[in-house]
TrEMBL record:
Keywords: Signal, TPR repeat
Protein name, per record: TPR repeat-containing protein
Higher taxonomy: Bacteria, Pseudomonadati, Bacteroidota, Cytophagia, Cytophagales
Signal peptide segment: 1-19
TPR repeats, residue ranges: 178-211
InterPro entries: TPR-like_helical_dom_sf (IPR011990), TPR_rpt (IPR019734)
Organism: Hymenobacter psychrotolerans DSM 18569
Amino acid sequence: MLHRYLLFLLLLAAVPGQAQTSKTAAATATEAEVLRKATELMQDRQYESAWKLLNGFDPKHRRPAVALKQTELALNYHLRSRELEGFGFVDLKPLERLDSLRAKYTRAAIRYPFAVELVLKNLLKQQPGNYKLNRALADYYFQVEQCQCAEADKSPATLYALMARHYTIAHQHGQGDYSSYYKLGYARMSQTRFTESLPLFQRSIKLRPDYAPAHFHLAYSYTELKKLRPALEEARTAARLADTPELKYDANFVASELERRLGIPSSTPKPEPTNKP
């Protein structure tokens, strides 16, 4: 095992964009080993080390599995991003939190180029049957719509259509989970296709019953379809399960309004204002 340990040290020291891994090293470390080690580093919150390992192994982004792991790392665990085409990462210390560091280091260095959309689209052209790439692209477009931090040339309507296209393909080929069904439901709801959004939110809830955002947006879709009683039930559930003050406030507010419209005594706690803008 010693040669593998030394190999990982070599890969961790690799400079992004430079193929410093020797032919011997490349032959010794398998893709599965690199992905496993990267996952362990991410679980230990060593995000920059994980990135260096992956990028050193596949600097030209030709391996779909490695690129997918890089996409997961880039979209979820970066310290800073430049329009989701370049990223900065950090290895967290035991008591550090990534969200706190993001607020503190607003001008942190962006050292690692990785144009998420371009990388995934190029790989999808080469492997059109790799539906994990469709799922990753859909997740990318969802994040773009949420953060409004990239793809300035794409309107919200375009992003919803791209989400719907790639999530639908992914789902048709078994690449779905509670999160992807929720996000596709969100896209259909945002397109005012409320009837289509219902089974998607319901599927998300079936896969993860305690997922408050799915309950909340299901309540919204029911409301738009004039189904106020099931909307009230879902709003109350969302308020009960909410894990952020903002979502709890919004869900309680919606529940109160639905109780008023239904003319029934309120059993919903009075919403307390949050500090959100």
